[in-house]
Amino acid sequence: MNEISLKAYAKINIGLDISARRDDGYHELSTIMQSVDLADYITVRKLKKSSVCTEGYVGGNNVRVSDSQSGIETSGNIYIVSDDEGIPKDCKNIAYKAARLMLDEAKRSQKGTCFNDDLSAIDIEIEIKKNIPVQAGMGGGSADAAAVLAGMRELFKIQIDDIKLQKYALSLGADVPYCLTGGTVLCSGIGEVITKLPDLVGCGFVIIKPFKGMSTGEIFNEFDKSEANGLKTVLRPDIYKLKAAVIQHDLDAVSKQAVNVLESIVAKRLPEIKTIKKALYDEGAMAASMTGSGSAVYGIFKDMDTAVSSAGRLKKTFFLNTDVRIISAGNINKGWEVYRHG
């Protein structure tokens, strides 16, 4: 097997509560994360070292990252190609970092490689077809990294268990452990404490992403300032009630707790957040809330058919001349899946 292709699914936060910054710079959080069936498409392929990296898609900017550039003692070069001009094509890309971890793990053990593989003669190409919007709070980069971790473990038959893979995931970012798991999950700690919950079945989502996005770091800095000054951000969700509602399949109760403590901070800078929420409620959404640090906003609808119809009307009427992206999405019980071997 010379390549593997995976779907890397987006996530939304149904209810998000955050505490003050820890000494290590992270924030403790409590949230229900839900995978949705919007996905990036990731292909990880082996290249002979003499191979020339493919040009990829329009706007591709393929960069050969040498060992000296990455600052790590490594085996093999890693190439990133993508149809999205905006994502890094070098060692700043979290998918690159995931591939580096797994390639070096394979080299250390050697028993983790396919029969007749010579790691000294192999480079890696990661092809990323972007569908998940960036700066949306939907975990696109984290999902890509999780898919690369899972894909390379299978591609190179690397003998590491899920616990070690989760440790690698956490070293890459707070959302990556969840993206390895996916589904309906209560996340706490900095995101690494994962409690699986029953699937949130039956509902549908309409997700609207404004053209503008916000830096996650910038939003959290604003949150820290408001906390330090004793200012209230927004109503906090009751995570215990939210968890109970998910377990009981009570969509009305889930909707009442779909509150994001970061939303008011983002809405001060992006007033379209409020406009989008009103449009979703006017379409009959049971709840409307920003996901993560934004700027995407989702509406919860009673079923998928209603969500699809509402998204269609919003595209044709309210947001016809507005620079937003409108997506109807269903929930899914996984963070990634393999769809092709080659």
Q: What does the secondary structure layout of this molecule look like, with pairings?
A:
Layout: E1 3-21, E2 27-48, H1 67-70, E3 78-82, H2 94-109, E4 122-129, H3 140-155, H4 162-172, H5 176-181, E5 184-188, E6 193-196, E7 204-210, H6 216-228, H7 239-247, H8 251-256, H9 263-269, H10 272-282, E8 287-290, E9 297-301, H11 304-316, E10 324-330, E11 336-341
Parallel strand pairs: 3-4
Antiparallel strand pairs: 1-2, 1-11, 2-4, 2-5, 5-6, 7-9, 7-10, 8-9
3D structure, described in words:
This protein has 342 residues and is an alpha+beta fold. The chain folds into 2 domains: 3-194, Ribosomal Protein S5, domain 2, CATH 3.30.230.10; 204-330, 2-Layer Sandwich (Alpha-Beta Plaits), CATH 3.30.70. It has helices at residues 67-70, 94-109, 140-155, 162-172, 176-181, 216-228, 239-247, 251-256, 263-269, 272-282, 304-316, and strands at 3-21, 27-48, 78-82, 122-129, 184-188, 193-196, 204-210, 287-290, 297-301, 324-330, 336-341. The strands form 2 sheets. Strands 1, 2, 3, 4, 5, 6 and 11 form a 7-stranded mixed β-sheet that branches. Strands 8-9-7-10 form a 4-stranded antiparallel β-sheet, covered by helices on one side. Helix 2 links the parallel strand 3 (78-82) and strand 4. Helix 3 (140-155) runs antiparallel to helix 4 (162-172). It is globular, with a radius of gyration of 20 Å. Mean pLDDT is 87; it is low at 54-74. Belongs to the GHMP kinase family. IspE subfamily.
